[in-house]
Amino acid sequence: MSREKNSRRVMDGVHETHDGMKALPRKKFKKPEAETLDIETIAEGVRSGSRLYLGKAITLLESSNPGHKQNGQQLLNQLLPFTGNSIRIGITGVPGAGKSTFIETFGEMLTGLGHRVAVLAIDPSSSLTGGSILGDKTRMEQLARNPRAFIRPSPTAGTLGGVHKKTRETMLLCEAAGYDVILVETVGVGQSETLVRGMVDMFLLLVLTGAGDELQGMKKGILELADAIVVHKADGDNARLAKKTVAEYKQMLHFLQPASEGWTTRPLAASSLENSGIPDVWEMVQEFETTVKSSGYWKKRRQKQTQDWFRSMITDELHSRFFDDPERRQLVKSLEKQVLDDRLTVAQAIARLFE
């Protein structure tokens, strides 16, 4: 039978079997619904430490498909009992501080010590196209190939402060997969630091030598978020200057309130190029964990972070439901036009919108 004739028969709702007999009308092919996803299999794959299944699980959570969202939350609920057993470290720094280089060197050292390391790199999205570079796997080539490491670039997708709204849930999935050190890299110094501080246990600030000049453009608030300041690239001619910079930061930190209760923020010098000072950073992280856990502040902070997360999700849901209503979207457009035409004030338009 010719392809055209066969196409006509199928389009007419009738198809023939191989022996030429007419069969019942063929149902139109339907794309499998999200509900057909095997959540049990994905959960088991994540628990086994499979990077493939972990990637699938994160993609499910990040999806905007309503069915995927529901399945993603079911999956997360199944995995919740296996979360929380890691130390979550936020890492930020001024442009050029070498965050990716530091994370790769730090991550390689940790995997060598027997740890499993997950890197969640917040990637800048274009405000015009929504696209992002997602180049962290390229910048951390060696760590990306390490079987004990997992790197997940996460586009900001326009989220306030540059932090993807699913980063918190991604951290939980990584913990369920057995990663005991979670590193969250931010875009740079800005609003995102406050949000990342609100989802990690410890916050590291990477700076360069010459604290006096650098602090001209650095907000005092960023320093107040840091539990440790790493003067990076402390090698070659910079080695001597790095020691001076560490001393300058020690003096400055005396006048700032500590970021974590019971812990004194401290600076130290490190070089990823020479691998010097990197073990000292890990020793400080371990000391921080012991100190903060013994004081009870560790649990208190995590509970506060969960509470803040819950409340921010309420705001997100209200925003989503508000604009998902077609009639309300149309009303917003109409009122917006009246505001632009100077027929209504902004306050009047808002009042009408919520009548």
TrEMBL record:
Say if the entry is tagged with keyword Transferase: yes
Q: Which UniProt keywords apply?
A: Kinase, Transferase
Annotated EC: 2.7.-.-
Query: What InterPro entries would the database entry show?
Result: GTPase_ArgK, P-loop_NTPase
Check the record and name the SUPFAM superfamilies matching this protein.
P-loop containing nucleoside triphosphate hydrolases
Entries under Pfam families matching the protein: MeaB (PF03308)
GO MF annotation terms: kinase activity
The residues the entry assigns to the signal sequence are none
Keyword Kinase applies: yes
The family this protein is said to belong to? Belongs to the SIMIBI class G3E GTPase family. ArgK/MeaB subfamily.
The name under which this protein is listed is: LAO/AO transport system kinase
Its ancestry begins with:
Bacteria, Bacillati, Bacillota, Bacilli, Bacillales
